[in-house]
Specification:
- By secondary structure, the protein is mainly alpha-helical.
- The chain has a domain of 41 residues.
- It is 58% helix and 0% strand.
- α1 runs antiparallel to α2.
- The radius of gyration is 16 Å and the shape is flat.
């Protein structure tokens, strides 16, 4: 049997994308690192998310 056709969603507006990045940052803040290396990785990811959120225009993901 053929797989059902994929539903194509409209692209997110810049404001919606910013909200997604803010949600991702909140989730990163909730995570508990197991060791120092994981803590550093999470901190780097949080720093990148903060940069993206503060940027005037968001990077295109597609």
């Amino acid at each position: 049997p053929a797989p059902p056709p994929k539903r194509v969603l409209p692209p997110l507006s810049e404001d919606e994308q910013r909200q997604v990045y803010k949600w991702m940052l909140e989730e990163k803040r909730k995570s508990k690192p197991r060791d120092a290396a994981e803590k550093n990785k999470i901190n780097e990811e949080k720093a990148l998310l903060k940069e993206i959120i503060r940027a005037e225009s968001l990077p295109r993901l597609w």
